[in-house]
Amino acid sequence: MNLLEVKNLSLEFRTRTGTVHALQDIDLAIRKGETVGIVGESGSGKSVLSFGVLRILDDAAKVTAGSITFAGLDMLGASESSLQEVRGREISMIFQNPRTALNPIRRIGRQIEDVLATHTSTLRADMKKKAIEALASVRIPDPERRYHAYPFELSGGQCQRVMIALALACNPQLLIADEPTTGLDVTTQAAILSLISELARARRMATILITHDLAMASEYCDRIVVMHAGHVVETATTAELFARPRHPYTARLIASTPGPAQSIATLASIPGNLPDLRRNDLPSCRFHARCERAQGDCISSPLPAQAVRCLHPL
Amino acid sequence: MNAATLKHIRYVATENPVTLAAFILFTGFVLLALFGPWIAPYDALASDSSVALKPPSAAHWFGTDSLGRDILSRIVVAARLDFGIAVTAVAASFAVGSALGALAGFFGGWADRIIGRVADTIMAFPLFVLAMGIVAALGNTVANIVIATAIINLPFYIRVARAEVNVRRNAGYVEAARLAGNSDLRVLALHVFPNVLPPMMVQISLNMGWAILNAAGLSFIGMGVRPPQAEWGIMVAEGATYIISGEWWVALFPGAVLMLAVFTFNLLGDGLRDIMDPRMRT
């Protein structure tokens, strides 16, 4: 049984300059306890998808088709109050720029207590102990003292640890990590990701790791979902995806990931840009203009509804 | 209020002598407002025609007015009334204005348009004339001076709160609070509004001085507080007629105290902001 199931999801933004077809026909399934990576370049719809799952979107966004089911709850039909119950308790999210994601004038201990007070029946007397435990669980040194710290007194990495403590305070079933290491230095990145995957394993928590870094996804994810221009183009287990990419975009993406043996000069890049998603005559395969395997039917024939959404896979 | 907060207040005060001076003056004014009637050397209302219009002396430091009342005592006693009017008026416009402004800035759309137009409408009047009009229409009482002062200050709070909330409504921590399952109003009250307080503090302090000036100004032209009650504006008005005949002290001293009070609040603003904002504590 899938914990989170997104089916045929299409989502648009109505803007002054036209309708942006941000997501089209998205299928995504997350099982209990597994880690799934969503990779794709900027603007491919990774973040819109994750915010869409939590139903936190701008007023201009409109779901035009499809369904989102989380643990039996129809997220698209659910009332705002039941969504508030889910957010933070069942599905938590951490995102990039942890510095700005913490309230600058509230002590971090208090911020954790806020979440506990919103979603759990923790007694007032236990609050402080629980908050310090949460800080200790993400291995913040000296949690009793950090409890009283303001966000600006912590480093970026520590802020992200606090964010993780906040996100996991109520033992959610699903954690969405939206580029959790952007803006952190490389050693901190590794430490943060190891911490996330370790906590996820210990709590049997499903994790969605959103990133544009394929190498990073390969290290921490069981399965990888590749997105391009609002489409899911390929879904496969990590080993399979790297051993035998089927979609041309995935193949190009893997080829353009730097490895230790490569020099920058030999690094491949993907020609062209994402198509303008405001166009009304978007081809059925949105990669076709950048694809060397493209043929005439890529523009008009519907894409096959399978794990590899390509008419001419590798 | 814990040890760290006190330490921080001490730091802000000692680091900036102007702030320290403002705090000392402010404390002095507050003490006058609280204990004025006990501090004053004479009865502020008791007239004694034998000492009418006497210049400053050892017995009457600030001299006496046309009815022989001690000017120093009247200034001291008047502090409570002037501060009372200013504090109540500013508190009222802060409470109403910041709430309306925060709603307008946070939700935008129709709320923003309606609240914004109301603020613009108030601003379209010359504010002192509007205050005069309100007092004239509602009746000549101290309560109506408070209401008038509160109303003319309202747009400033609405605008500051709206602008400050607006730049924060999409901040990372606001998004994070929503994602953690907080309702819009809770996000606004718990996470956005407290962040807006430091800049609002400056506005409050500046406004206090202005509110005192406004209340005194209304009394000066004969609205609101009525003689023989001691009030700085009335005292200046009464003294103005004697300046030409050489009895300068009747108008000078209440005027100088009024100026000092406004000055104090203007200086206080920056210090208050530094105390309110934890980011300054490094």
Task: Chart the SSEs and their pairings.
The complex is a heterodimer of chains A (314) and B (282).
Chain A lengths: L1 E14 L2 E14 L3 E5 L6 H8 L7 E10 L2 E2 L5 H7 L4 E5 L2 H4 L6 H12 L4 H14 L5 H4 L9 H13 L5 E5 L7 H18 L2 E6 L2 H7 L2 E6 L2 E7 H6 L4 H8 L41 H4 L14
Parallel strand pairs in A: 3-8, 3-9, 6-7, 7-8
Antiparallel strand pairs in A: 1-2, 1-4, 4-5, 9-10
Helix pairs in contact in A: 4-5, 7-8
Chain B lengths: L2 H13 L1 H23 L31 H37 L1 H16 L2 H12 L3 H27 L3 H8 L4 H37 L11 H9 L8 H28 L6
Helix pairs in contact in B: 1-2, 2-3, 2-10, 3-4, 3-6, 3-8, 4-6, 5-6, 6-8, 7-8, 8-9, 8-10, 9-10
What is the gist of this entry?
Chain A is an alpha/beta fold and 314 residues long. Chain A contains twelve helices and ten strands. Chain A has helices at residues 46-53, 80-86, 98-101, 108-119, 124-137, 143-146, 156-168, 186-203, 214-220, 238-243, 248-255, 297-300; strands spanning 2-15, 18-31, 35-39, 61-70, 73-74, 91-95, 174-178, 206-211, 223-228, 231-237.
